[in-house]
Specification:
This protein is an alpha/beta fold and 410 residues long. It has three domains: 175 residues, FAD/NAD(P)-binding domain (3-Layer(bba) Sandwich), CATH 3.50.50; 116 residues, FAD/NAD(P)-binding domain, CATH 3.50.50.60; 84 residues, FAD/NAD-linked reductase, C-terminal dimerisation domain (Enolase-like, domain 1, 2-Layer Sandwich). 24% of the residues lie in helices and 30% in strands. The protein contains eleven helices and 26 strands. The strands form seven sheets. The protein has a five-stranded parallel sheet with strand order 3-2-1-7-19. A hairpin with a 4-residue loop joins strand 4 and strand 5. Helix 1 packs parallel to helix 8. The longest helix has 15 residues. It is globular, with a radius of gyration of 22 Å. It binds flavin-adenine dinucleotide. The site of flavin-adenine dinucleotide has 35 residues, from helix 1, strand 2, helix 2, helix 5 and helix 8.
């Protein structure tokens, strides 16, 4: 019987388990889970603080998921080292686990720059895990002043989650705009205004450089007093296990389209992996949930002797803050054309006659059609793109494409 080991117990691990079971119903699967919980939906931690969900509804799979899939989960332990020649993973308690196929699905960790005086701050938090959210929740009070360092997705989601439970929320970032990795300046201004109208204050083009207990000294020289500090500066892929075993890593663990690393019998998936980005035409870490699941599934199928490739990933974000929904995808290289109506903004970036990327604010209906255009590199002169920009419809695809893509239902 084949022995599978999965390091990590997040979305990529679930994909991997389901991928393995699609091809091998009997092999032995062991999951090594640093976190002490069954898999939960990580993006929901802010909704938990906001009171929009609870611990039960945050579960990403049913209570019997591991049992149904014949998995043994080792909770609260970490994989410390891989010995690729012996095909073993050594846990942090010294115990070895032997594998025939291994998937590293270890996600990413918060990056904390070496701020001067950070050790003097008593109440500081990251915002990546359920334990982070539970620890922050214990300190939330109606008068608390919260400083969040980082105006990216994680910092802003945290701001939304706690806004109504504290006195003040200020978000600072060295970048000159919110969500700088996914929004251009104009769209970022729309989102920032919306967040401000909902009670979140910003200090942009400025960031904390030094801390002295409950006071942050900013790059500009300003000082900001706070009671709680949240550090959401960025994340780094957890690559050490593969790197220390001699495998190739860059910003993430380098994988091919089958999600295999260059170590024998070792695959990697999710936020820790650097796979092919079809929009960019090169490898990069695409740290988003759907990608983690699909990479994990692909790895699992191949680990079990099947054949699967994942070669059409593109950067994609579907998020919302205080009721403003947005979706972004691809890259913003190319000529921009815009559609505006009823306060909604759609921006499309076209290069060499194909759609390269888009930003949709407040009008995200049928956005899957736009992502299909990017993925398929559909020549825009073969469809009515002017109409499509206004309202996307499946009818822009040929009957044959619709049959393949949508199973003949349209
Ligand atoms: C607040 C927040 C909001 C988000 N919102 C969105 C969103 O709206 N849309 C979206 O697409 N994505 C979102 N994301 C990103 C999304 O959650 C990740 O892309 C996804 O969780 C990645 O899944 P993963 O399985 O690769 O990693 P993870 O879910 O991080 O799981 C990896 C697991 O591996 C464990 N681990 C690490 N090292 C070891 C080890 N050595 N041994 C054992 N276990 C180990 C970790 O503790 C962790 O539990 C959000 C993330 C956060 C934090």
């Amino acid at each position: 019987m084949k022995r599978y080991v999965i390091v990590g117990n997040g979305h990529a691990a679930v994909g991997c388990i389901e991928g393995i079971r699609s091809a091998d119903k009997t092999g032995e699967i062991t999951v090594v889970s640093k976190e002490p919980y069954p898999v939960y939906s990580r993006p929901l931690i802010s909704y938990y603080l906001e009171g929009k969900t609870d611990l039960e509804r945050m579960k990403y799979r049913s209570g019997s998921f591991y049992e149904d899939n014949g998995c043994c989960v080792r909770y609260g332990v970490s994989a410390a080292a891989i010995e690729p020649n012996e095909k073993t993973v050594t846990m942090d308690n010294g115990e070895p686990l032997v594998y025939d196929a291994l998937c590293v699905a270890a996600g990413s960790s918060p990056f904390v720059p070496p701020f001067e005086g950070l050790e003097t701050v008593e109440k500081k938090f990251s915002f990546m895990t359920l334990d982070d959210a539970l620890a922050l929740e214990k300190e939330l009070t109606a008068k608390a002043r919260v400083l969040i360092v980082g105006a990216g997705l994680i910092g802003l989601k945290c701001a939304e989650g706690i806004r109504d439970r504290v006195g003040h929320v200020t978000v600072c970032d060295l970048a000159d705009r919110v969500l700088s990795s996914i929004l251009d300046a104009d769209c970022a201004a729309v989102v920032q205004k919306h967040l401000e109208e909902n009670g979140v204050a910003f200090l942009l083009s400025d960031t904390a450089v030094r801390f002295d207990r409950n006071r942050a000294v900013m790059k500009s020289g300003k000082t900001v007093a706070f009671d709680l500090l949240v550090l959401a500066v960025g994340v780094r892929a957890n690559t050490a296990l593969v790197k220390n075993a001699g495998g190739a890593v860059n910003r993430g663990i380098i994988v091919n389209e089958q999600m295999a690393t260059d170590l024998p019998a070792v695959w990697a998936a999710g936020d820790c992996a650097e796979g092919f980005d079809a929009a960019l035409g090169a490898n990069r870490v695409l740290a988003i949930l759907p990608n983690a699941y699909l990479q994990g599934y692909t790895a699992g199928v191949n680990m079990a002797g099947g054949s699967a490739v994942f070669d059409n990933a593109i950067p994609m974000n579907s998020i919302g803050f205080f009721g403003l929904h947005m979706m972004t995808a691809g890259c913003y290289d190319g000529d921009m054309t815009e559609e505006r109506s009823d306060g909604a903004v759609k921006r499309f970036f076209v290069k060499n006659g194909v759609l390269n990327g888009f930003i949709l604010l407040g009008a995200t209906d049928r956005a899957g059609i736009y992502t299909a255009l990017i993925r398929d590199k559909t020549p825009l002169d073969t469809i009515d793109f002017d109409l499509t920009k206004k309202a996307a419809s499946n009818l822009i695809f040929s009957r044959e494409t619709r049959r393949k893509r949508f199973g003949g239902v349209v």
